[in-house]
């Protein structure tokens, strides 16, 4: 499996399947994600973060627009779009309205596992959708 295929399998099996426990199949124990300028450190903390995110957007759907990797497969970048119904996303009121936003994720991949992730989301677009 290429690094790009690994990332796309992660998107499908974790986010689109709404299965935080599937994280175990993809990330190392000391995985780090930087999201909104904050680091979430460790596989268990990341799984809890995924579960909380899914609670805010219970019908979340990840639409991968594009994924590509560098020559040695150690970095993968994806552009994506998320759609769903807002039940408290970003600590907003749980209004039950549809929302959507785009983002970019850069992954560090080592030995067939996801090691690190940096995420940027289009938060202003969320607030005006």
Architecture overview:
Residues 7-116 form the SnoaL-like domain. This is SnoaL-like polyketide cyclase. The protein is of the alpha+beta class. It has a single domain (3-128), classed as Roll (Nuclear Transport Factor 2, Chain: A), CATH 3.10.450.50. 26% of the residues lie in helices and 43% in strands. It has 3 helices and 6 strands. The chain has helices spanning 3-16, 43-56, 123-128; strands at residues 27-35, 38-41, 61-69, 75-85, 98-110, 113-121. The chain has a 6-stranded mixed sheet with strand order 2-1-6-5-4-3. Strand 3 and strand 4 (75-85) form a beta hairpin. The longest helix is centred in the first third of the chain and has 14 residues, at 3-16. The N and C termini lie far apart (37 Å).
Shape: globular
Please state the structural category: alpha+beta
Tell me the number of strands. Answer: 6
Regions with little confidence, pLDDT below 50 for 5+ residues: none
Question: Going across the major beta sheet, what is the strand order?
Answer: 2-1-6-5-4-3
Query: What is the first-to-last residue Cα distance?
Result: 37 Å
Compute the number of structural domains: 1
Task: Give the helix level as a range of percent.
Answer: 25-40%
Quick overview of this protein structure:
The protein has 129 residues and is of the alpha+beta class. The protein contains 3 helices and 6 strands; from the N terminus they run H-E-E-H-E-E-E-E-H.
List the topology elements.
Blueprint: H1 3-16, E1 27-35, E2 38-41, H2 43-56, E3 61-69, E4 75-85, E5 98-110, E6 113-121, H3 123-128
């Amino acid at each position: 499996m290429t690094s790009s295929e690994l990332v796309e399998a992660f998107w499908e099996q974790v986010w689109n399947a709404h299965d935080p426990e599937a994280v175990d199949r993809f990330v190392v124990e000391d995985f780090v994600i930087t999201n909104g300028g904050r680091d979430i450190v460790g596989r268990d903390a990341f799984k809890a973060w995924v579960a909380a995110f899914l609670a805010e957007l219970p019908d979340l759907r990840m639409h991968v627009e594009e994924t590509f990797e560098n020559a040695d497969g150690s970095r993968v970048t994806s552009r994506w779009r998320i759609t769903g119904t807002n039940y408290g996303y970003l600590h907003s009121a749980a209004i039950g309205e549809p929302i959507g936003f785009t983002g970019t994720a850069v992954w560090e991949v080592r030995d067939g596992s996801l090691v690190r992730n940096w995420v940027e989301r289009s938060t202003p677009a969320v607030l005006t959708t």
